C-alpha cells in the first residue's frame, strides 16, 4: 500500500470552499482505499489530507482522472501552499477494505 | 468527528514487533471509523498512525478498553518516543462509514 499525509494551507477565508471541492473531487478513484479530509483546529487555514492507496501507481494515475483534473483546476486558486507532505507505507488497521 | 495524526518512534529494531501489537490491539473499538498504521519509509524506526473517531469521547473511552490496555502494556517497552501528535477535525472523504 501507499500512503500520503499532507497539510494544505488555504488562502485566507477559503478553507471551507476548498474542503468542498476536495470532498466532491475524491469519489470513485480506482485504487483509493481511504481519503480523509480534516480541518486543523489550531490553524484556520489548514487542511489535513490522509490517503491510503493500493499502490503509488494508483495514486499517480488518479491525478489524470478527469474529475480530479477538474477539481485541481478549481482548487488551485484557493490554495496558498503545502506545509507538509509525508509518504508512508500503510500496513493495515481498521477501516480499510478487506 | 475527531482525528489524530501521530508519529511514534520504535526502539531500534522493534518497529515490526510494535506494528504487530498495534494491528492486533485496534480491532473492535466502538466509535473508531478508521485506524491506519503505516511505516515511515524515510525512518526505519518511524510509524505513522492516522485515526478517525466519531468523537473525542469515543477516542478517550477506547483507552480504557481491556484489549487496548493490554496492547498499551505490551507496546510501551517497544516505544522510544512520540515525534508528532496532531489533532484534526475530519469532515468527510472516501473510506469512512456512511
UniProtKB/TrEMBL annotation, chains A, B:
Q: Does the keyword Oxidoreductase apply?
A: yes
Domain (ABM): residue spans on this chain? 2-88
Query: Could you tell me which Pfam families the record lists for this protein?
Result: ABM
Any one GO molecular-function label of the UniProt entry: monooxygenase activity
Leader sequence segment: none
Q: Which UniProt keywords apply?
A: Monooxygenase, Oxidoreductase
InterPro entries, alphabetized: ABM_dom (IPR007138), Dimeric_a/b-barrel (IPR011008)
Task: Give the protein's recorded name.
Answer: Antibiotic biosynthesis monooxygenase
Q: Provide the species name.
A: Marilutibacter alkalisoli
Amino acid at each position: 500500500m501507499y500512503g500520503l499525509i499532507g497539510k494544505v494551507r488555504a488562502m485566507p477565508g477559503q478553507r471551507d470552499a476548498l474542503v468542498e471541492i476536495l470532498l466532491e473531487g475524491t469519489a470513485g478513484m480506482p485504487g483509493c482505499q481511504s481519503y480523509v479530509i480534516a480541518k486543523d483546529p489550531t490553524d484556520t487555514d489548514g487542511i489535513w489530507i490522509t490517503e491510503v492507496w493500493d499502490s503509488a501507481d494508483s495514486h499517480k494515475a488518479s491525478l489524470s482522472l478527469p474529475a480530479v483534473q477538474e477539481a485541481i483546476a478549481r482548487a488551485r486558486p484557493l490554495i496558498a501552499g503545502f506545509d507538509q507532505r509525508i509518504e508512508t507505507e500503510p500496513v493495515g488497521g481498521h477501516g480499510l477494505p478487506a
